[in-house]
Amino acid sequence: MNSQKRILITGATSGIGEATFKHAIKNGHVLFITGRNEEKLIELTKDHPNSFYLKVDVTDLDSVKNLERVAIEKMGGIDVLLNNAGIGIFDKLIDSDLLDWHKMIDTNIKGLLNVLHFFLPHLIRSNGHVINLGSVASHHVFPDSGVYCATKHAVLAISESLRAELSKKIRITTISPGSVNTPFIHQTKNKELLSKFKPSFESGMPVEWVASQIINAIEVEDGVNISEIIIRPFQITK
Predict the structure, then answer these.
(1) Which pTM value belongs to this model?
(2) Among residues 161, 154, 157, which one has the least CA distance to residue 106?
């Protein structure tokens, strides 16, 4: 394994964020995790002296500004930012609730940018690493998920903008998973679509598979930057 890293993970209280925390702490890294479920943050960090937490809403500027102060104070700097916080609410465009569109844009795009804004100067100082959680929806547009796909296209565009401007100062990686078995789908309110999509999510990849790829990108040799990892379920048929 490469040297110990100081890693900040947003949206770490479930799914990919939680799995990445567990993998990274096992590998000896220093972790600072955030989310809106403070009880879960306490539970995850209580037995790990090299871990810290703060309840944070990435859509709230004051909350993220406070995160910058506390995280840098606790860790003494930052080497890796994993922008993992995100939501997906699936529905047909004609039937969608406008506020659901706003929630996805506020969290998946503006929330990511809020965190990036406050931590990018610190990452440049440490020649650090930005990892943005995209999706196969960063590359394809699927029915019944148009605005979600738009937000994940934006995540990939932000990563590529960072690479165009800062590739000699920081590493930039986009992690783009296909279906993953997480509670992610449960935010969808359309009952018909929920019952349609649930089986594909429940038969999707374990979160640990995605977390292991994130750790691989973090621990890669010093002379390498992994620009993007697209990870999909694979099942052999006979």
Answers:
(1) 0.92
(2) 154
DSSP, residue by residue, 143-190: TT-HHHHHHHHHHHHHHHHHHHHHTTTSEEEEEEE--B-SGGGGG---
User: Is residue 233 over pLDDT 90?
Assistant: no
Q: Report the alpha-carbon distance of residue 67 to residue 51 in Å, rounded.
A: 14
Residue keyed to tokens 């930057």? 225
Q: How far apart are the first and last CA of the chain?
A: 38
Domain ranges of the chain: 6-231
Residues 32-58: b if buried by 16+ CB within 10 A, e if exposed? bbbbeeeebbeebbeeeeebbbbbbbb
8 Å CB contact between 8 and 80: yes
- Catalytic residue, candidates 52, 90, 119, 148: 148
Which pLDDT does position 204 carry in this prediction? 77
What does the pLDDT read at residue 188? 74
Residue type, 115: V
Is 53 assigned a catalytic role?
A: no
Q: 6-231 is classed in which CATH architecture?
A: 3-Layer(aba) Sandwich (3.40)
